[in-house]
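Lab meeting, item 3. Inverse folding demo.
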């Protein structure tokens, strides 16, 4: 500033913005390239420009006046407090002394159906109307400096079944034109197959390992050798109940050097018809391996109730060889919420449960899920059987729901409806009731 004639900070937002950008770039070099804090695996920046705040707030009390508030929105940054009884203003210009004022409104504004805007207060538009860009942020945006920046170190890997590739097109495009354009474009998975067919080195890696050594070129729709940096490959998540897509997902994370879908299904020179058959032949389905993997994957990103639901889905709809081992391996991912809920239901905040009690409570939750589909924990004798006090001893949930109606209300409604029945409707009603009573 000392090199500019009469130049002070509030009058030079352009210089402030440029210097800030230079310092930000230098900071990124120190962190990312010079590795001052170790290896940087990702970068994310979010630029927020604020006005200088005064040491003390000015406080005013004013009557509510819509016209004045709208007028001063052009000169101040308006922040409506949560109780809507006070407004905080940040003056647009950084003046000497206090630049912050808190205005207490004597009358709380109420939403009324007969407001001049015809539909009450539009809070979204009110926010935009009351928002303004300070001089420094305006200069920052005029120079085209990015407000947000992100470099993700994870490459999302889409995959699809044969003939089921996704493509985008305009609603008014002819189908033939879309097919002609898309049929020669590789998806990431198809480009992976092609890469294995022409690059011997790539055959050493599975699909999710490829981003560490190759870069996806979206323009040319192909994988090219990586020259610097690295990325982690992550296949898109699929639920086990999807069937073929899940088994394809499993093969792509285990099989190396596949050049086509047929190659992926080929084991010891035999091309199998389905992906599950290939998984079985590879030995991926022995010893309940797929159930252990799907529960491990679910516990990494799912909540305990979701893991319990998945566990019930597996034991009800899938063939599990060793249910006892499956439970003993994964029960800890199903109980994280139980202790918290038990503490909330009792006054003792230091309440604790041992491992056996946690398992019993989790099994009680599983028993409720099983009863909702007409089964119970007793039918799965490989699982630990908790004492009755941990279980819901009621009957089937469907029966409970059928007995939960307000019978007095139903009797009143029935009597009221019978008065409006036609003669033919009354005969049908009487026949149904008689049939029920004589069964």
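The presenter then showed the designed sequence:
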């Amino acid at each position: 500033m000392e090199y500019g004639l009469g130049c002070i900070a509030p009058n030079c937002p352009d210089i402030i913005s440029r210097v800030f950008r230079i310092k930000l770039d230098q900071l990124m070099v120190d962190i990312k390239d010079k590795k001052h804090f170790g290896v940087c695996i990702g970068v994310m920046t979010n630029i927020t420009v604020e006005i200088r705040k005064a040491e003390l707030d000015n406080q005013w009390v004013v009557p509510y006046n819509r016209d004045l508030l709208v007028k001063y929105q052009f000169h101040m940054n308006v922040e409506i407090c949560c109780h809507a009884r006070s407004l905080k203003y940040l003056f647009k210009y950084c003046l000497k002394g206090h630049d912050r004022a808190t205005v207490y409104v004597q009358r709380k504004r109420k939403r009324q159906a007969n407001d001049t805007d015809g539909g009450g207060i539009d809070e979204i538009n009110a926010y935009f109307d009351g928002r303004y860009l300070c001089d420094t942020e305006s200069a920052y945006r005029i120079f085209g400096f990015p407000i947000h920046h992100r470099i993700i170190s994870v490459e999302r890997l889409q995959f699809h079944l044969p003939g089921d590739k996704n493509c985008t097109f305009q609603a008014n495009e002819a189908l033939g034109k879309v097919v002609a354009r898309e049929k020669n474009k590789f998806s990431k998975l198809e480009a992976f197959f092609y890469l294995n067919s022409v690059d011997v080195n790539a055959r050493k890696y599975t699909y999710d390992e490829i981003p560490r050594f190759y870069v996806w070129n979206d323009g040319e729709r192909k994988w090219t050798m990586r020259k610097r940096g690295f990325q982690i490959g992550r296949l898109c998540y699929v639920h086990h109940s999807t069937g073929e897509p899940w088994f394809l997902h499993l093969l792509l994370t285990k099989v190396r050097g596949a050049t086509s879908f047929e190659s992926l299904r080929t084991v010891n020179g035999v091309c199998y018809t389905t992906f599950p058959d290939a998984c079985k032949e590879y030995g991926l389905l022995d010893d309940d391996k797929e159930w252990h993997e799907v529960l491990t994957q679910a516990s990494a990103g799912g909540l305990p109730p979701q893991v319990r639901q998945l566990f019930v889905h597996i034991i009800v709809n899938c063939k599990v060889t060793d249910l006892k081992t499956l439970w003993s391996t994964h029960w800890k991912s199903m109980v994280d919420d139980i202790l918290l809920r038990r503490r909330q239901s009792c006054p003792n905040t230091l309440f604790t449960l041992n491992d056996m009690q946690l398992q019993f409570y989790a099994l009680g939750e599983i028993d409720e899920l099983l009863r909702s589909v007409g089964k119970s924990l007793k039918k799965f004798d490989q699982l630990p059987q908790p004492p009755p006090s941990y279980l819901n001893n009621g009957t089937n949930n469907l029966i409970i729901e059928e007995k939960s109606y307000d019978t007095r209300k139903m009797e009143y409604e029935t009597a009221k409806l019978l008065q409006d029945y036609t003669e033919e409707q009354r005969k049908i009603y009487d026949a149904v009731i008689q049939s029920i009573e004589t069964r």
